[in-house]
């Protein structure tokens, strides 16, 4: 309120100063005497409107009340000045008519602007109401600049993100259902065969072994889902330390040699002179390396090669896992890190499609990033981490 009073008095002083310069000191004094109380009255009325704006109803009524306040103030000012300053009734009438004309046009323009603003508000409100009812194909349709346009853009962006998240959730549920259906169906059929006694002892033992394999697959899938959920929710605790990447890479490569030999694939490590140091959780970075190397081995044909590199870069350290497989199309390079995404949905190679998703979650939790780099042949997956001091 104090600031508003100060604004009213300063405006009256500015007007009286202009009148004093143009018409003399008496005119300036009379102008201040007239405008100062009227300004204080207008400020008080304005604050009363603000305090009771909730009781006025919608924005249309609030705009109408404001317009009436402005017109009333203008009418009072003109009436007082006409009574004090003019002698000729002709001049007084012309002045009143000119003010009425200007007020009419001003109110009309204000009405047009208010109608446009209310139209944008109604569009945003209607869009949000449709979203609340479950629709995701609606947009506000509000364009231009300004606060309402920014709000509409935020609403449209929110709807797009919500639609994407719901699609991803539906795809995730479908993928989980698909990956669970096969082992569960196999377990049911094998169990029924044993229970019904339609197989002999040797076959029953074989069926039990198959059931154990399916149970292991189910357990790994559930563990991966649980770990991915905890990573994305930030529930895991991290043991951050200096990690020697050369040692980490060599251990991972040695651990993968039997699997690579079984597939007739050569796996090797290429390291910088000196051992690059990163800041991270050693066990989980090792998990990322295992996932990347296993994925590379899975997609590398016999007599191919998988190469793991660790090197320093300007703003950190990087690890690369490169293979000589068929490569990944450019349009698929971002999607390969989505849960359950497979380049060839018809292919069944023992992977649930969670390895790269878990790897991305781990790397991003370290403040790093992971991506599929350009390659003339095969696939190059790189991850960047913070370097140790």
Q: What do these coordinates show?
A:
The chain has 389 residues and is α+β, with helices and mostly antiparallel strands. The protein has three domains: 2-132, no CATH class; 147-233, Signal transduction histidine kinase, dimerisation/phosphotransfer (DHp) domain (Helix Hairpins); 241-385, Heat Shock Protein 90. The chain is built from ten helices and seven strands. The strands form two sheets. Strands 2-4-5-7-6 form a five-stranded mixed β-sheet. α2 packs antiparallel against α4 (59-85), α7 (201-233) runs parallel beside α10 and α9 (282-298) runs antiparallel to α10 (355-365). The two termini are 56 Å apart.
Question: DSSP helix count?
Answer: 10
Mean pLDDT, to the nearest integer, reads: 79
The helix/strand series, from N terminus to C terminus, equals HHHHHHHEHEEHEEHEE
Radius of gyration: 37 Å
* Structural class assignment: alpha+beta
Number of E-state strands: 7
- CATH-defined architecture of the largest domain: 2-Layer Sandwich
Which labels suit this protein?
two-stranded antiparallel sheet, elongated, 3 domains, 10 helices, alpha+beta, five-stranded mixed beta sheet, 389 residues, Helix Hairpins, Heat Shock Protein 90
Layout of strands and helices, then pairs:
Elements: H1 2-23, H2 25-51, H3 53-56, H4 59-85, H5 89-132, H6 147-196, H7 201-233, E1 241-244, H8 245-262, E2 266-271, E3 277-280, H9 282-298, E4 305-313, E5 316-323, H10 355-365, E6 369-373, E7 379-385
Parallel strand pairs: 2-4
Antiparallel strand pairs: 1-3, 4-5, 5-7, 6-7
Helix pairs in contact: 1-2, 2-4, 4-5, 5-6, 6-7, 7-10, 8-9, 9-10
